[in-house]
Amino acid sequence: MASTTTTTAAAAAARFTCLAPATRPASASASAGRFLLPAQHWGAATTHGSAAVPVPIVAAAPSRRWAPGVAYATAATGKSVHDFTVKDIDGKDVALSKFKGRALLIVNVASQCGLTTANYTELSHLYEKYKTQGFEILAFPCNQFGAQEPGSNPQIKQFACTRFKAEFPIFDKVDVNGPNTAPIYKFLKSSAGGFLGDLVKWNFEKFLAILTAIAVVAISGHAPPAASTAAGDRAALLSFSSGVHGNLSDWGSPAAAMCNWTGVRCDNHSGRVTGLLLSNSNLAGVISPAIANLSMLEKLYLDGNHLAGGVPPELGALSRLRELSLHYNLLGGQIPEALGRLTSVTYLTLDGNGLAGDIPEAIFCNCSGLTFIGMSGNSLTGDIPLRPPCRLPALRQLSLFGNALSGVLPPALSNCTALRWLLLQDNSLSGELPPEMFGSMPSLVFLYLSHNHFSSSDGNTNLEPFFSSLVNCTGLLELGVASAGVGGEIPAIIGNVSSANLSSLFLSGNRIAGKIPPAIGNLHNLTELCLFGNMLEGPIPPEILRPPRLALLDLSKNRIVGEIPRSVGESRLLETINLSQNKLKGTLPESLSNLTQLEHLVLHHNMLSGTIPPVLNCNLMLDLSYNKLTDQIPSEITVLGNFHVYLNLSNNLLDGHVPLQIGNMEMTQALDL
């Protein structure tokens, strides 16, 4: 009979396996050397994720009460596990005879399975507890189930030994099924007999060879890890809550049914958990992989909390999940490739965390029903992984701004014909602006490509095809291509771009040359026009002041000449005018006094002359420095002085006395005369 220590370890090994269907083995003849875990104990000991105390396996005569998930057989050939030689993870030969006298738990492992964290954690705990008491774990990586062990041997070794501190032996990657099945696995399957048939069913299938290596027990790991009852859901929720603290005071209370716990939503008929809605719940801690046991979960909202650690790859096992919202937390590490198995997901947000590494291509390729992808405000690198034949035909918002993405805009983006928000600013994207791409997105409302490194092969960019393609985007409201590396001239066709709707046009910080086209004035709903920091020349066309809702006009840091149009005072909603660092001449228009909403008037570093108009309704910032203004400072300029935050009239040709009323400008923070 096996020792109590060894059999207790074997029972503990069974604890964290997935339950197989409760099928009776095909053959159950009596045979000496079988090790039987009584069925009445098995349920308590093997429920995935439970805290059941391991029970000993005992040698017993055959019983009609077979434990589900365990197969019993004797090796008819007399051959033993110890007769095999295998290669370890470093490629060295290892004779299994070195493990004679020890109970062996042999398991096929995978790094990207929904069961990975739970199994590696429990395997490590199990090994630590029993390694000095005649127990050994032999792990064989296998990539045959969902391609969930794709890495090289060094990568697998680093994953297991760094993340999970695995000390048990890890061997060379093998096949456990098919024509290239490793000899050791041919023997194990044959010895296990009828329960497995000819196949290992899934990752983390466990074979327990006890002492003599003649009796082999197969502990199945192929059934889904998810709880199959409401009671299992409750256990999964409590496991999740044990890893966080926050507004979950009613969780686990005998007075509150599970479906009435904060944030929990259940199906009315089955009582199973379908939603976990805990946005902005002041939660801190880590996201437990136990959430993956909520097999009926459709909505998971954990955004706006203080959750740290990584995104559990086990979430990829939630086949019914439609909405996953993890934005604005403290999550780090990489986005798990396993999220690409969420084939039902339509809404995915990971914005505002500390995620790094590449975006998994599987998300863009397998989750074809996605309508919303949010990964902005992280530290993601690599390219945008959208390549044929992958398509996202339903995608309405792609938000990747504020990362370190590189490469060109993928041509396959043109297949995202339903896009309304394309937010790619603040990255390191390069290449040309492909006009045909945006022409195929007629529903675009927000297009932001600012702060990237676009250019053409000759260092110049023909903007006409780009703006021509946007003519089809009749609903476009905001266009941002600032500091994007583009050059060339602004074409007159810009006036036809979504003329009924475009409200914001940001083309600043580029290498755009030539004159400002008067056709911009055809954008009747324009409220913001930013062209600063380019190489624009010529005068300011009065037509660009035509849009009646214009509130922001910034043409600073160019080479603009001529005078400020007298019609500027007709744009009554102007709040900010910045024409600084140009070559403007002439006098300040008297009509500026009509701008009652004006808060910022910035005209420094020009060649303006004449006097300062007595009435300038500028409430926050007035900077007329470095011009050629003459005469006295008008005392009227102090009438609104209590609202001035910044007043700079320095480096002009002003003379006379400084108005005494300036001493009453109590709210002014900076004054330079």
TrEMBL record:
Membrane topology summary: Single-pass membrane protein
GO annotation, cellular component aspect: membrane
GO MF term set: peroxidase activity; protein serine/threonine kinase activity
SMART domains in the cross-refs: LRR_TYP
CDD domains tied to this protein: GSH_Peroxidase
Compartments reported by the entry: Membrane
Keywords carried by this UniProt record: Kinase, Leucine-rich repeat, Membrane, Oxidoreductase, Peroxidase, Repeat, Serine/threonine-protein kinase, Signal, Transferase, Transmembrane, Transmembrane helix
PROSITE patterns: GLUTATHIONE_PEROXID_1 (PS00460), GLUTATHIONE_PEROXID_2 (PS00763), GLUTATHIONE_PEROXID_3 (PS51355), THIOREDOXIN_2 (PS51352)
Alphabetized InterPro entries for the sequence: DNA_repair-toleration, Glutathione_peroxidase, GPX_AS, GPX_CS, Leu-rich_rpt, Leu-rich_rpt_typical-subtyp, LRR_dom_sf, LRR_N_plant-typ
Catalytic activity from the UniProt record: L-seryl-[protein] + ATP = O-phospho-L-seryl-[protein] + ADP + H(+); L-threonyl-[protein] + ATP = O-phospho-L-threonyl-[protein] + ADP + H(+)
GO biological processes: response to oxidative stress
Residue ranges occupied by any Thioredoxin domain in the UniProt entry: 75-216
Protein family: Belongs to the glutathione peroxidase family.
Protein name: Glutathione peroxidase
